[in-house]
Specification:
Structural class: alpha+beta
Strand order of the largest sheet: 2-4-5-7-6
Order of helices and strands: HHEHEEHEEHEEH
Shape: globular
Oligomer: single chain
């Protein structure tokens, strides 16, 4: 009998899968002569694995449950850095006594993992990743900033996909880039008390 994976295991698997997809997509962007002929098949396999993982995470909880954002962020950062393989500077400012969030833990883990992969995937060695969590009125905010990154021709599409996913479980996501090509991702989520009052 196989053991049912817990949230931490599934989050780690998500990070590995996303890392492989991002790495392959980056190589495709760099190879205009399409010399990586097996890339579409590999991406399709990884996308199928990713879909299975997301489905598994979502099925674990049918109703929103209180989630600890800081715990999920810590796990996601660890997983992303393990996949990255590039030395970067990571600064974390995680608020103490952060209110719990009303959503499925699997959905929050996937959104956090995806936002981090978008941010770190564009960093060169020595780039800086700043991750902040904080409470604001009825919301809890996750802010991810990557400094010293490269351009990403597919950032708009990736941003839209992430924003749509976060909206699907009642959150709000926005992404912005400045003139120095620094990237800011902000995910806003309802606190449990605010969700219960709706």
């Amino acid at each position: 009998m196989t053991r049912e994976p817990n949230l931490d295991d599934l989050t780690t698997l998500l990070g590995q899968c996303l890392g492989r997809i991002d790495e392959r997509a980056y190589r495709l962007q760099q190879n205009d002569d399409a010399d990586d002929l097996d890339a579409p098949d590999v991406l399709e396999q990884e996308a199928a694995t990713l879909q299975e993982l997301v489905s598994s995470l979502i099925e674990r909880n049918e109703a929103p449950q209180p989630c600890d954002l800081n715990r999920i962020v810590h796990r996601a950062i660890t997983s992303c850095l393990a996949e990255l393989g590039t030395p970067i500077v990571v600064r974390q400012h995680l608020a103490d006594n952060l209110p719990l969030i009303a959503c499925q833990a699997g959905q929050l883990a996937f959104a956090t993992q995806r936002a981090l992969m978008i941010a770190v995937g564009r960093l060169d060695a020595g780039g800086e990743l700043l991750v902040t969590t904080r409470a604001e009125e009825d919301s809890v905010l996750l802010e991810i900033e990557s400094r010293g990154g490269l351009g990403d021709h597919h950032l708009q599409e990736r941003a839209e996909t992430l924003c749509d996913f976060v909206a699907s479980f009642g959150g709000n996501c926005r992404m912005a880039r400045d003139e120095r090509n620094n990237l800011l991702v902000v995910i806003e989520l309802l606190q449990v008390s605010a969700f219960d009052d709706r």
